[in-house]
């Protein structure tokens, strides 16, 4: 059965279908999904535009009920949906279920936000005049999501868009359509009026481009590569629309001489290699001061020897496969580049064979790396990390900030002085102390600086900055 696109409240077949392949077992077809055309995308945009006037003025209890019902179903089906996610994306079953729970929590949070919509009433500088400041929905929101978090990222974009009264045209990554289709199906059955949420699966060059070209999309939120993000920005400027970009990262994790060795190693392994390193918040630069460097590298090697890399659904697996062959080739290319640049491959980096054919890669750790190397400057987006030796905290901070990105930054230390200074001076949108650089809560802002992000923050109450526009109204008493 081919899963269809949702346009104006109807499930619509595309002119062709594409297969969703399990990266843990390439013989396993997760499902077939309809590929939307540019015409389908334009029809979805028209439907969202037509639905906007009524939905933007809908009651807060209606929106609350739909989002809450969606949250309840996601959480009730967390094992089933988590398995689907792990099967199509390759992260472990525990990670897949955890991500699904997070999606449910996000919908639950924004169901509550529907009931907390607030403004301000202020006196005017002029006598006998009142001032009201309110937030209103932006209009039709285009949502373009990546493959690495196929249910959480759609959730944290769709939920606030609907909460604040916007209508949506949603294009998920073609590599992982299953989780996105499931979440749209749940929302559709929860009672969304036709046209409020439209799903158009397919190629970015076709569906995504039709969205970028349309003057009837009033805001676009995008998570993905830096190159595509720049194209989204240019197209949005052309149409004078709001745009929000979450792009790459080259996140540092600093380990100081005074750090607890076990804490620092566990945080570094989690940051660099869990979810197969396929997180924009992953840390691929491990910046280690010289007093602890050799002990840290030795402990990392021992810890990495014990990592279980296997089928994502298999009990005991700690790291699943890379998402597809193209990404696997990119990872191995960077491993070759690291060697050519003079870094030492201290551990891993080998292709692995398992009981089923899949894209298995042993996590790779480089030593003797410098911050000038390509493996230290460019986002690899795989289980590849480099150890950079530095003299002291001051040099560590300088190296940590010497990057075109600025999403997440971490430090392992028992020094309150250094932890406090790092939190203030790390050039990143998020800072972790004695914690992995990846792993954030659903109710607080998410986003970065420099080349990692553009626009207002995602998640939590800060989402209102993007999904609403401010109106100031004056009334003569």
What does this structure look like?
The chain is of the alpha/beta class. It folds into two domains: 2-247 and 452-476, Aldehyde Dehydrogenase, Chain A, domain 1; 251-433, 3-Layer(aba) Sandwich (Aldehyde Dehydrogenase, Chain A, domain 2), CATH 3.40.309.10. It contains 15 helices and 25 strands. It has helices at 38-56, 60-76, 78-89, 93-114, 152-163, 177-189, 204-213, 226-239, 261-273, 290-305, 325-341, 374-377, 393-401, 416-425, 464-467, and strands at residues 2-3, 5-7, 10-12, 16-22, 25-35, 120-123, 129-137, 140-144, 167-171, 197-199, 219-223, 242-246, 251-255, 283-289, 344-347, 351-352, 360-361, 364-369, 384-390, 405-406, 408-412, 430-433, 449-450, 453-454, 468-476. The chain has a seven-stranded mixed beta sheet, with helices on both faces. Strands 10-9-8-11-12-24 form a six-stranded mixed beta sheet, with helices on both faces. Strand 16 (351-352) and strand 17 (360-361) form a beta hairpin. Helix 3 crosses helix 4. The longest helix is centred in the first third of the chain and has 22 residues, at 93-114. The protein is globular and about 70 Å long. 53% of the residues are buried. The mean pLDDT is 97.
Summarize the structure.
This protein is of the alpha/beta class.
